[in-house]
Amino acid sequence: MGSLIGHAENKEQEFDELVKIVVAEFNKGSLTELQLRQAMKKSFMLGHSAGHSRGELYLKKRLSELGGIDQ
Fold it and tell me: How does DSSP assign 20-42, residue by residue?
């Protein structure tokens, strides 16, 4: 489970860093529409990946609590 936690935390950190960079560049007016779209798509995928890891952690925890299943 530790690797899932690490994966989720890494993706969340990458997401936060990307958002900060994109907002700063957007405020400077130095992003093209294409670059903005690409950044938005990348940020979505980072959040999506982190969410899957968190969901898998939750499922494993609940299964373990309910039936003594340790996966």
Answer: HHHHHHHHHT---HHHHHHHHHH
